Fold these 2 entries.
Entry 1:
Amino acid sequence: MMDKAKLARNWIFFAIVSFSLTFSNAMISGRIGINYGRNGDNLPSAFEAIEHLQNMNAYRVKIFDASPEVLKLLSGTKLQVSIMIPNEQLPDIASNQDVADQWVIENVLPYYPKTMIRYIMVGNEVLSVKNDTVLWYNLVPAMINVHNAIKLQNISNIKIGTPLAMDIMESTFPPSNGKFRDDMPVYEVLVPLLNFLNKTNSFFFVNVYPYLSWLENPNKISLDFALFTANNSSYNDPGSSLNYTNLLDQMLDSVHFAALKIGYENVSLAISETGWPHSGDIDQPGANIHNAATYNRNLIRKTTAFPPLGTPARPGVVIPTFIFSLFDENLKPGPRTERNWGLLNPNGKPIYELDLTGARLDREYSRLPEPWNNLPFKGKIWCVAAVDANVADLRDALDLACNGGNGICESLAPLKDCYQPLSEVAHASYAFSSYWAKYRNSSNGVHCHFNGLAMQTTIDPSHGSCRYPSVTL
Ligand SMILES: *[C@@H]1O[C@H](CO)[C@@H](O)[C@H](O)[C@H]1NC(C)=O
Ligand SMILES: *[C@@H]1O[C@H](CO)[C@@H](O)[C@H](O)[C@H]1NC(C)=O
Ligand SMILES: *[C@@H]1O[C@H](CO)[C@@H](O)[C@H](O)[C@H]1NC(C)=O
Ligand SMILES: *[C@@H]1O[C@H](CO)[C@@H](O)[C@H](O)[C@H]1NC(C)=O
Ligand SMILES: *[C@@H]1O[C@H](CO)[C@@H](O)[C@H](O)[C@H]1NC(C)=O
Ligand SMILES: *[C@@H]1O[C@H](CO)[C@@H](O)[C@H](O)[C@H]1NC(C)=O
Ligand SMILES: *[C@@H]1O[C@H](CO)[C@@H](O)[C@H](O)[C@H]1NC(C)=O
Ligand SMILES: *[C@@H]1O[C@H](CO)[C@@H](O)[C@H](O)[C@H]1NC(C)=O
């Protein structure tokens, strides 16, 4: 039995330790990380990018590989680093401890500890790869092997995680109704994953995009709710009686409740990606500088608040957060927003002012441009050749689109309505509009992009008896 003095000493010791742990955790984890993706052909050098990150007061950086160049350059900095193992390497790493050991020897040891590697992400959005059961079932074994490989090197301050997308969720609303997708091997993959994360004291990393949720349902979800500007109005979850003032908290708590349903009530969440696009297509409302700045500024204030805010279901917990993304990445496929999540222009100038420390007040920022596209567009849209498109590239893209069959380019044949004018720009614009109108809603979701050669317009390019197919919203 412990005597009273010892008990008191222990209690004081405990109080100091837990206070300083909480304190330092908040001071550390409450700081902001930035995703540094490099899928662009106009980006500055890694050296410059890292200088920008430091000037911005970023606390962490997350890269999508383990680039020797980037890891070497980071060695001189105080940035905490998250590196990633590509999905294709998971099966080998999962089935062979030696491969995992070798990966750590080649990708961590040359830089660590000078480069402050703190997270190794095993794969990216692995469970979003539909029906790839080989990949799915290899996820946790790969994480375990990488964890063993780290332990073998006596390294104790690198956590192993894996970022998952919100499409792992069957339902997210109300948050208390949160549930993982039915077609997912919950007991074969998710339970072992949560067990691994719990045992290793790691985080459940999620890529959480309130913008995308709002975009799917702009009439049901208020934009203010998504931008943290709903102020005092709140949503009361009837299942939990918790009150929500923003969409991000709702989405995070839906994951919390889904994990709770399969037996894990204390999962620590981290946000591996979040952000807001500053520009997008005509059919992507809400993507503008005003909203991007508003979202990220409020996100940062929330993340850096001390004491930590957590979420309604898990108040007070620290949620490490990485904003997506440092730069616009012009080589990304998909809708225009995909290429416009950046914080900085390629020359390093901010696209909008953003204080990553969270200290700056709204009134201390200069005035933002008015949001111009917050209401969903109603009307017709065409998909035409971009103004700066190269003529030879247009000719190739035109052939490709016309080979899509289904009479896409019927009207472009000699003697047909759209044969004249016989120009690459006119023909490609017709082919893009026709192809896009036909396949926009197909399961593989064709976008008005065509490798950067196309853009949306509300100006009808039709002429004479030639009618360009359009999409009506
Ligand atoms: C996945 O597999 C299920 C069952 O085998 C099937 O019904 C479903 O269509 C598949 N989904 C995809 C995207 O391939
Ligand atoms: C790790 O620590 C153990 C026990 O202290 C030691 O035997 C081993 O050599 C160390 N391994 C490395 C790679 O430093
Ligand atoms: C919330 O407050 C801010 C700042 O006062 C204001 O700009 C914004 O319009 C308010 N939002 C709503 C939904 O009233
Ligand atoms: C929110 O409510 C509090 C008290 O209920 C009030 O003091 C504050 O001004 C309100 N803020 C906004 C932005 O409406
Ligand atoms: C939620 O808000 C309602 C109404 O404002 C209030 O009565 C209730 O106590 C709040 N619940 C919690 C858990 O804060
Ligand atoms: C998580 O880990 C802790 C020990 O670190 C343990 O007490 C707890 O039961 C675990 N939770 C679950 C749901 O496994
Ligand atoms: C979750 O954490 C709370 C508070 O630390 C603890 O009381 C509870 O037992 C934990 N639950 C599990 C399943 O570990
Ligand atoms: C195409 O998808 C949009 C939503 O993106 C929907 O509003 C529209 O009704 C769909 N059109 C057709 C023809 O299926």
Entry 2:
Amino acid sequence: MSQNSSRTAGRHFLNIPGPTPVPDRILRAMDMPVLDHRGPEFARLGKRVLEGMKTIFKCAGPVIIYPASGTGAWEAALSNTLSPGDKVLMVETGHFATLWKNMALKLGLEPEFIATDWRTGADPKLIETRLREDKDHTIKAVCVVHNETSTGCVTHVGEVRKAIDAAKHPALLLADTISSLGSIDYRHDEWGVDVTVGGSQKGLMLPPGLSFNALSDKAIAVAKNAKLPKSFWGWEEMIANNKNGFFPYTPATNMLYALAEAIDMLHEEGLENVFARHDRHAEATRRAAKAWGLEIWCREPRDYSSSLTTLLMPAGHDADAFRKTALAHFDVSLGTGLSKLAGKVFRIGHLGDTNDLTIIGALAGVEMGLGLAGVPHRQGGVQAAMDYFAAEAKGNARAAA
Ligand SMILES: *Cc1c(COP(=O)(O)O)cnc(C)c1O
């Protein structure tokens, strides 16, 4: 960026792990006159997105769509299923798990927080052990974050369900997929999740402003007797109105046009291909990090996130000063370290509408930024990522021949 210019040419590289770049197709889809949200045209749009989201969560039951950020859908998940004083079992996988736990406290629940060092996903064995001890079934829900966006570690949600079942415990399973939906494989029904929480601005490629609850039959049944106060977040009125494609209050109409387009785009590419693309971009990023000699924060390769990669700064170097340099010179936004990781790590978001060359561009911004900021590293990260992409392309060409 020139020192004396009020314009920056080209596209900004938004490589934070959400919000993510919004495709032009989605921007055009929402560029529509605002419509009557109680009219027949809206009902068609409402039904289209309510049905469409089931194919993204992979669920048969209802999906609730809120005009709210993901935090709202967290509150909805807790307040619709639980009563004051209920015990909930949560795992301290990072900053977002901690925020959800703090919300549970504020709502009058009694969260029990299994500690970790923030460098892995949640351990299903620890969950199983704790549930086996809970003979009176005082724990009413287990809450996990599928992709912990502060650390770049994944929790294997299907294994958490198996742990709950192995302990023969009736607790509900609540999962946050705000930064994994549409980028990492997720199966609400198959994994026996009761409430899945999602958001619009990460893997779904939309602007911020929508969030979701996907529900199981058990969650809907439990909700009938849940006593936490709720009004705006209540599922019952939503489900009743949604049956005809409508909402109990004014929905974010233009965001729903965008959502319909995003669902179409994910299916045109094919969800399996979307997940494989994210895996590939994550692997390229890790290969670059290895070449630079920077440590990947997530300690367990099995838990590596395909949405983002968190990298540890060499001791004595401030991650935020480096991020500032990369932004000022190369117009790339990288994720900051959150709470106890502030200054110590930075995060490279590689989720959403991203291709091999945009990843190479972002990695080039990181590599040049490391040099300019005087951070000790080896060169060749971008080359390692290019070599990997080229080898993958060759393999695909051979497979297609
Ligand atoms: C972004 C994020 C949130 C918070 O969502 P908001 O839309 O900012 O309210 C919660 N959990 C995870 C895992 C996230 O990545």
